[in-house]
Design brief:
Blueprint: H1 2-18, H2 24-30, E1 39-45, H3 57-63, E2 67-74, E3 92-93, E4 100-103, E5 121-125, H4 136-150, E6 153-157, H5 194-203, E7 214-218, H6 229-232, H7 246-255, E8 276-279, H8 284-293, E9 299-306, E10 318-325, H9 336-347, H10 353-356, H11 362-369, H12 372-381, H13 388-392, H14 395-402
Parallel strand pairs: 1-2, 1-5, 2-4, 5-6, 6-7
Antiparallel strand pairs: 3-4, 8-10, 9-10
Helix pairs in contact: 4-5, 11-12
């Protein structure tokens, strides 16, 4: 047992020594927490808020000299990661620090004046995945709004975008589709770090009713826009149960939109979340052959047979394809699911996605895509050609607008 523990500690030491990137919390610590001296601090975080030694930002700030940690704010999954996806978070006292934990994923998703009465600066430190429908950026934006209204400072401890800083896909959210999974008018894959996104939202007047917050971003050291998360040398802490690896962050936009309509198993409920497209009525070999024949850049498909442990098709024999992202820069990640639906509609006319899927979920599909037009246009012929121009229409305008907020090359 002793040898096992020593081996684990040695492996962690190698990870820390090999890290090429310092997250914002480590940079702040190197500054001796100067921006926080004498201030009452609130912290929005979850288990991903750690340094490269896997030490929680909660504990680091609690022990930081000259800093008074007065409140913790729990997003989806909770500050310590002990809440299941979608479950409401309740207020309680963190046993490790004695600091009150306020829920901002329950009755209120925005910190209230009462929650912030003992706070001078509210800090955000969460590893995101670079996709609009992942709820943590919505939490960040609403917290910025609360701070702007109350004259509080807001600080982001920056972290990498695991999909990279150059990948942008999807239309911006339209008026009829705003929700907690599409809180801001940004593309589905937006190519910014949390700190850059905060600067963009603040600079472009997208916080509340054109509010401005007193914003500070503590940048990373060593991160570049084309960097793969593995290249950072940083430890990956899963931001939610179905994002177990940084590679899964690139798979989430690849299949997650389709997952909203309960049309197929996308790997959730099996060992490959967001990496599969499987159903009982699919011929795996034929689907793989057709998808590979499209020669989609940066993607390969192989036949697979599964029996899910839970979720869609639980206990059934399903078959379909497993997706391999060979080049995340070139791969049309978010359109992949539409290519799958296109080929299946041609193979199985009786199983066209928007004729057989759960119609009660169409509203959520529209919210996730950020537009009712995507479903309307695709439903006509189940062809990607009918949506591709609309899906990509905002990419370059957003790149031009957001690039002035870049912190990293």
């Amino acid at each position: 047992m002793k040898k096992t523990i020593l081996s684990a500690l040695a492996a962690l030491a190698v990870t820390v020594a090999s890290a090429q990137v310092k997250p914002g919390i480590e940079v702040l610590r190197d500054m001796d927490f100067a921006p926080l001296q004498g201030k009452r601090v609130g912290l929005i975080t979850n288990p991903t808020g750690v340094d490269n030694s896997l030490r929680s930002t909660i504990d680091i700030l609690h022990e930081a000299p000259g800093v008074t940690l007065t409140g913790l704010y729990a997003p989806e999954h909770g500050v310590r990661g002990d809440v299941h996806a979608g479950d409401h978070v309740d207020n309680f006292v963190d046993p490790a620090t004695g600091v009150t934990v306020y829920s901002i994923y329950g009755k209120s998703r925005k910190p209230t004046p009462e929650m912030l009465k003992d706070v001078d600066v509210l800090i955000y430190d969460i590893q995101d995945i670079g996709c609009r429908s992942f709820t943590f950026i919505s939490t960040m934006g609403l917290a910025m709004e609360a701070c702007a209204e109350l004259g509080k400072q807001f600080m982001v401890l920056d972290r990498p975008n695991p999909v990279g800083g150059n990948k942008i896909e999807g239309n911006v959210v339209e008026d009829s589709c705003y929700s907690f999974v599409s809180q801001f008018p940004i593309p589905y894959i937006y190519g910014l770090t949390p700190g850059e996104l905060a600067q963009y939202l603040n600079g472009e007047g997208l916080i509340g009713d054109n509010l401005k917050v007193d914003l500070t971003v503590i940048p990373m050291q060593g991160w570049t826009r084309d960097m793969d998360f593995r290249e950072t040398g940083m430890p990956w802490v899963l931001p939610s149960p179905h994002i177990p690896t940084p590679e899964t962050a690139a798979l989430y936009p690849l299949s997650g939109i389709m997952g909203e309509i309960n049309y197929m198993n996308i790997g959730v409920g099996y060992t490959e979340p967001f990496k599969l497209f499987c159903a009982s009525w699919v011929n795996a070999d034929e689907l793989a052959r057709r998808l590979n024949s499209l020669k989609l850049p940066g993607l390969m498909f192989r036949p697979i047979h599964i029996k899910p442990f839970y979720g869609f098709g639980k206990g059934e024999n399903l078959q379909g394809v497993e997706v391999y992202v060979t080049d995340r820069h070139k791969a049309p990640l978010s359109l992949t699911q539409f290519y799958v639906m296109q080929e299946l509609a041609d193979m199985y006319p009786d199983h066209k996605a928007f004729e057989t899927a759960d119609k009660a979920r169409f509203n959520m599909f529209d919210k996730v895509t950020g537009s009712k037009e995507i479903r309307r246009r695709f439903s006509r012929n189940h062809r990607v050609d009918d949506i591709i121009d609309y899906w990509n229409k905002d990419v370059e305008p957003f790149r031009a607008a957001s690039s002035k907020y870049y912190i990293y090359e």
